[in-house]
Design brief:
By secondary structure, this protein is an alpha/beta fold. It contains 13 helices and 14 strands. The strands form 3 sheets. Strands 7-8-10-9-11-14-12-13 form an 8-stranded mixed beta sheet, sandwiched between helices. The chain has a 4-stranded antiparallel beta sheet with strand order 2-3-1-4, covered by helices on one side. The chain has a two-stranded antiparallel sheet with strand order 5-6. Keywords: Carboxypeptidase, Disulfide bond, Hydrolase, Metal-binding, Metalloprotease, Protease, Signal, Zinc.
């Protein structure tokens, strides 16, 4: 792992707990003023909920003193971030090997028992599209700053006037579980379509004799931030990198938080004007080619899209707009009720608990998010930000043996969303 702030090792992650509003404001001020030093893995939100902050060794004494003088509970959660990551990589290396589908048919590229870099994901997409050309197509809708492809998957059997679900992952490079789940969705919809008879049952109930995917179509972007994602896998990269990789003019720092770069109530809190900050908004909305590609792709199908799902980690939250205000959208009751039903199915698999609500009310205020823009500008009626496993024990280093359990439970939630879309299409 390359240190986030070059030249130092033995970064530590502290779990802190603000007891009241005053101590919470101390942490919020620390993030706003020293985001070039402290990496808030979970951001200042509400009192009496733990949050994780990565601290460089040169600032450990200052950080501990601030916690003590501010009467904020703290403890070391990860004593040596680099050592932890190296140990995990040695225990479960990233491999490229042959895998199998549930039906037993052999397939290379992905097995969801390890995390995979972008070229392997692209191989998987091409392979699946070749095997199922009547169901899945892939296209390159743009290129990132460093020239990596931004891939779009379309799953449909053709026709017009259909409802659409738009899914994306990989906004934040270090959130490896996100592309791992989004690729799982693609596999389930295409290769394992025949294993989901309940969909056919539901469609029959609507007196439809056509397949599930003829009722609506999916548009899926597995990795929105390909440059950052590849950097987290690189030998000389940074496993905990969050942003994209475009250098900032006039600064030695690199990268913009793509999920603070969308032009809907942009820069109204919860982002930073400091170029080194993990939540840097870059000074103007849609400054980044990657966020513009997402924008243009969604706008091209916005009139038929009824659901936008963007997958992140970590925390186990199922979030609705709005993120920039405590106010709720006019259709919040419908958003909430659908989320409850989806999370109920998710929890039934492994008992995993998710918190449902709007970001500002259950977490913290932040602005310039893709989900807020998808609802507020693109006009998509159902938009969700889903923060997957876990609640902080492993954070961004979710062990590979949790990929499949995470994906299985989350797939049950996605099926609830899909069934509602089928109902909307009738």
């Amino acid at each position: 792992m390359k240190a986030i702030f070059p030249g130092s090792k033995r970064y530590q992650v502290f779990e802190v707990n603000a007891k009241d509003k005053v101590s919470l404001e101390v942490l919020a001020k620390l993030q706003n003023e020293r985001s070039d030093v402290y990496d808030f893995w979970t951001e200042p939100r509400i009192a009496n909920r733990p949050m994780d902050i990565m601290v460089p060794p040169a600032f450990t004494a200052n950080f501990v003193e601030l916690m003590q003088t501010s009467d904020i509970d703290y403890k070391v959660k990860i004593a040596d971030v680099e050592r932890m990551m190296e140990a995990k990589r040695k225990a479960k290396p990233v491999i490229h090997g042959e895998s199998g589908t549930r039906s037993g048919a052999p397939r290379v590229s992905l097995n969801w028992e390890s995390y995979f870099d972008l070229p392997v994901i692209e191989e998987f997409l091409a392979e699946l599209a070749t095997k199922h050309p009547n169901l899945m197509t892939t296209s390159v809708v743009g290129q990132s700053y460093e020239g990596n492809n931004m891939n779009l998957v379309k799953i449909s059997t053709g026709g017009s006037g259909k409802k659409a679900i738009f899914i994306d992952g990989g906004f934040h490079a270090r959130e490896w579980i996100s592309p791992s789940f989004v690729t799982w969705v693609i596999r389930e919809l295409v290769e394992n379509y025949a294993t989901h008879p309940q969909y056919a049952d539901n469609i029959d109930w609507w007196n439809s004799k056509i397949g599930l995917l003829q009722m609506y179509r999916y548009k899926i972007m597995p990795v929105v931030n390909p440059d950052g994602y590849r950097y987290t896998f690189a030998v000389n990269g940074d496993r905990l990198w969050r942003k994209n990789r475009r250098p900032i003019v006039g600064s030695d720092c690199i990268g913009t938080d793509l999920n603070r770069n969308f032009d809907f109530h942009w820069d109204e809190g919860g982002s930073s004007d400091w170029p080194c900050a993990p939540i840097y908004n870059c000074g103007t909305a849609f400054s980044e080619i990657e966020s513009r590609v997402v924008r243009d792709t969604i706008l091209g199908i916005a009139n038929q899209t009824v659901v936008y799902l963007t997958f992140h980690s970590y925390g186990q939250y199922w979030l609705t707009p709005w993120a920039y205000t405590t106010n709720l959208p006019s259709n919040y009751d419908q958003l909430y009720n659908l989320a409850v039903r989806a999370v109920d199915k998710l929890t039934a698999v492994n008992g995993t608990q998710y918190t449902i609500g709007s970001p500002t009310n259950v977490l913290y205020l932040h602005s310039g998010l893709s989900a807020d823009w998808a609802m507020g500008v693109a006009g998509i009626p159902y938009a969700y930000i889903i923060e997957m496993r876990d609640t902080g024990k492993h954070a961004f280093e979710l062990p590979p043996d949790q990929i499949i359990p995470n994906n299985l439970e989350m797939w049950e939630a996605i099926k609830v969303i899909a069934e509602d879309v089928i109902a909307m299409a009738v």
